[in-house]
Design a protein that fits this description.
This protein is α/β, with parallel strands linked by helices. It is built from twelve helices and 13 strands.
């Protein structure tokens, strides 16, 4: 009898939910497994803004190291946290069916009162430089405060701090049943590439585990997230870069929207492009190349580099 596959996961409520989802899907295909809990660097430091940490894979590389060290057989990641280039020796084994890609705002007053605050000088909390840039582009006179920690920690901080609201990924709150009634979808805000998707990673040479995981793969989610991550990679960005992307399949067409935003929100450049579903290969890189030809993009990239150097 084969020993149970060891699934590596962070120990936050959301991460455990995601790992258990993978565990359930594997069991449906006859693969038994057990969870192995591992603290990531991003979990240990919940104070420093993510963009100031200056590293790629802050939430994933501890798990990946455990995978390469054979302490676990596969790792489950929120796909938006995964660097666009995986560590040597690791491969993407599956992308689960994607949840909501939207960002939401959780506010402290009733909806009318919150909307009134948006007309004045509101204080909004988030650790995401992407969300910060888009929010300040829309609401120039607002103030952004840093907000780190797992979902429950961030919700508690919102209740105890003098903030008007905080921005979250809808998928995370909804998966663990923590989305408050006092929240709104931010339909105008483009998400991080691969937001709402879950990735399974395994060792390149572990063909048995790879095959077991690949049976859980959702081809539509895999295709759309690849286009989004290729767009990000071509712009030399990571999860702490103010680059947004969303690819959606509509019939025989892939509809892509993306943008890059300065950290202070003063400049934002958008791009939209449709591709035939039968001819989407390289779509992410193609759109990124077109974006780089737009006036002002390179100035935004320099602003992002300067912000990193000062942090």
């Amino acid at each position: 009898m084969q020993p149970p596959v060891k699934i590596g996961t962070r120990d936050s409520e959301l991460a455990v939910w995601q790992a258990r989802r993978v565990q359930y899907l594997l069991s449906q295909n006859g693969t038994m497994s057990e969870l192995v809990y591992i603290k990531s660097e991003g979990d240990l430091d919940t104070i420093t803004p993510l963009y100031e940490l200056g590293v790629q894979g802050i939430f994933t590389r501890t798990l990946d190291a455990a995978l390469l060290g054979h302490r676990i057989d596969l790792a489950v990641h929120s796909m938006k946290d995964v660097p666009t280039t995986l560590a040597a020796g690791l491969v993407q084994a599956a992308v689960l069916k994607r949840g909501s890609s939207k960002d939401i705002i959780v506010y402290k007053k009733n909806e009318f009162g919150f909307l009134e605050d948006l007309k004045g000088k509101a204080v909004i909390a988030t650790s995401s430089i992407r969300r910060t840039g888009q929010w300040l582009h829309r609401y120039h006179n607002h103030t952004i405060e840093n907000l780190r920690g797992n979902i429950n920690t961030r919700l508690n901080k919102l209740n105890t701090h003098q903030w008007n609201g905080a921005i979250f990924a809808a998928a995370g709150l909804e998966r663990i049943g923590r989305r408050p009634e006092n929240s709104m979808d931010l339909d105008w805000m483009l998400p991080a590439p691969a937001q709402g998707a879950i990735m399974i990673v395994c060792r390149k040479d572990d063909l048995v585990v790879h095959d077991s995981c690949n049976r859980c793969n959702d081809w539509e989610s895999e295709m759309c997230t690849k286009i989004e991550r290729d767009f990000l990679h071509a712009l030399q960005g990571g999860c702490s870069t103010p680059v947004s992307a969303l690819a959606i399949i509509k019939g025989d067409t892939v509809v892509f929207k993306g943008n890059i935003c300065s950290p202070d929100g003063k400049a934002k450049i958008d791009i939209e492009k449709d591709f035939s579903l039968a001819d989407h290969g390289g779509a992410g890189a193609i759109v990124a190349k077109e974006l780089l030809q737009k006036k002002g993009v390179h100035e935004i990239i320099e602003l992002i580099k300067d912000a990193r150097q000062r942090s």
